[in-house]
Structure formats: structure tokens, C-alpha cells
Amino acid sequence: MPVQTPAASPALAELGWNADWDNLFKTWRAENLLPARVAIEDKHHYVVFGDGATYSGQISGKFLHESASNTHLPKVGDWVAIAPLPNEQKAVIHAILPRKTQLVRKVPGREVEEQILVTNVDVAFITQALDATFNLRRLERFLVMTREGGVKPVVVLNKADVCEDLESLLAQAQAVAGDATVLAASARTGKSIKALRAFIPATHTAVFIGTSGVGKSSLINRMYGEAIQPTIEVRDSDLKGRHATTWREMIPLPSGGLVIDTPGMRELHLWMADESLGNAFADLEELAVRCHFRGCSHTVEKRCAVLEAVEAGAMPRDRFDSYLKLKRESAELAALQTRHGQIERKRKTRQAQRAFNDLKLGGHPDSADD
């Protein structure tokens, strides 16, 4: 992706800078660094919004060397400390401020590693299309991830203008969403665009998340008032969309507030989900309180209130099955994380021992003959 650097950007206050962030920045201000916010990330190249100026940013060598993993590097939404280069629209990024919120998933594939998608967002518009791709189980996963990251979820059901079963699908989504707002929207007609804007007052940041082809970029274009994000028509043959958005980008809205567009996610494996799993399945957790056995697994126990509700039809079986699947996935990932942590600690111990031995041999050449 070519990193484009527009000349102007909003003022810091319009980007969400406030007294709390300013207080956190004291250490870096003493080093004559300036605050900025990451708008675009492309590997180790960035576009950052400063106070009324936009820079092409690059991480300092020291920062890169001291970063233990990719999660410690800047992500879209991060507040960073920069040193602008004289007479250039470039800046060196020296540090990241502590993150207020973040959306995280496990990286796709077999690796046991977290991937931070965006940070410091106030609301996540979990977007699905009201067509054959509508999927309650996928919606549950996005709700768990959003709540785990401390972000307010809003469910956006796009393409309401072509939906023939709108009321039924809305009711199904609301049953899964719990206390989260569910909106039927249409990027084509403008339905619910005003309601979406209301969730992003000045200084607030929202992110659109979902799979490809659900209309995230089209909704952003409607909110902005003109086509600023590329869109691609969904194939009629299988209703699958291609990635119109290929990177994460923060966009200041003319009406105030900021919105982040993201590529469609083919895979969503949760990274951490213990507490947020209960929040996303609050209806099931309420039933679990009435189970006879404390710590009931809701699988084989007698006098299990959850199993009784499933058998009576009060709890949809597919939702119950989804809960068990996510719980198993969370437990398996926790075990993998523990194992990975043990392996990593052993690796670092061996590395430190080799470094110590090399230093010892280097300092005492005769010891090699002992």
C-alpha cells in the first residue's frame, strides 16, 4: 500500500486528545517529543495525525529493537510520541502511550499470537448484511471480542432495503446482542445513517468490523457525505465480497468524530474471552445461576437449569451449542498460551545462559582449556 500523506489533519482535541492523555504525555514532552495519533499502518510505515499536520511516520531503531512483539508496535488508533523532521512531512515515532481500549484476535493459522486490530476506540459497529450471509454465530464472536476489548458494541444490519424478512432477522439479532443496540441500515438509501453518526460525537472514535461484502466502506461513504472509500459490488453467484479495503484507516468525519475502516475478516479466533463470554451470553449466565451444582459445565450434569431450558425450547439449541464451542475454544487457547509461554521462557533462559557463557569465555580465554 502506498502511504499517502495529506498536508492537514484535525487539531489534537478533535482527534480525542484531552487532559488525561496530556497528563500521560509529560515524560515524552520533557524529551521535546510531540503527540500524534496513528491514522494508517502499513507494516513499519505509518501516517500519523499531529496537531493540525499530517506526517509520514517511521519507527525509531531503538523503539523497534526494544519491542518484544508486534503487539508493542503502533496500531491504528494509537497515540504516539513523535519527533517531526525539519522542513519535511515526516516524523520518527519513539513511543506509544498506554492503550485505553483495543480489539484483539488470535492471528489466523496455527501461531499462538495475538493480533491487535485497532486501539482507543469508543464504539464498534459490528456490521452484517441482511442477506444469505447473515450469521448469528459470527455475530456472537464479534460481540465477545468487542466486549473483551472494552469497546461499546452496536450491531449494524446493512442492506435493509433489499431484505424481505427484516423484522424476523432484527428480532434474532437483538436476542443475541443482549443490551447492545441493533440498527437496520442501508448504505444505498441512507437508512439509520443519522443514528450511526449519533454514536460518534466530536472527539469520539468508532470502528466498522465485519466480513467482506457487508458494506462497511459504503456506510462510511454515506456518513462522510461522499465516496471517499473504495467499494466493490458483491458477487451475485455466492454473495461473497472482495476486499475493497485492504488496510485499516482512520477518517475524520466532517460532522466531527472519527471512524476507522477495516478489511473484512475471514477468520475470527478469539484471543481472550473468559469474562466477555459471560457478558455476550448473559441470558445463559442468568440460567446458570439456578443450576444445582456450582461450576456446572452444562453438558452432562443433572438438575442443570441450562440443559433444562434447552430441552424445553426456552434456550435455542444453536445458541447453546455456540456457547459451548466458544468456551472450549477459549479453554484450548488458554492452554496453548500457557504452553507457548513456558516454551518462550525456556528459550529466553537458554539464550541468556549462552550469552553469559560467551561473555565468560570472552573475559577469561584460559577457561576454555579448563
Give the tags.
single chain; 370 residues; alpha/beta; OB fold (Dihydrolipoamide Acetyltransferase, E2P); Ribonucleotide Reductase Protein R1, domain 1; 3 domains; 6-stranded mixed beta sheet; 5-stranded mixed barrel; 20% strand; disordered N terminus; disordered C terminus
Structural description of this entry:
The chain is an alpha/beta fold. The protein has 3 domains: 12-96, Nucleic acid-binding proteins (OB fold (Dihydrolipoamide Acetyltransferase, E2P), Beta Barrel), CATH 2.40.50.140; 102-261, P-loop containing nucleotide triphosphate hydrolases (Rossmann fold, 3-Layer(aba) Sandwich); 281-361, Probable gtpase engc, domain 3 (Ribonucleotide Reductase Protein R1, domain 1). Helix content is 34%, strand content 20%. Helix 4 (136-148) runs parallel beside helix 5 (166-177), helix 4 crosses helix 8 and helix 8 crosses helix 9 (282-288). It starts with 18 loop residues before the first helix and ends in a 7-residue tail after the last helix.
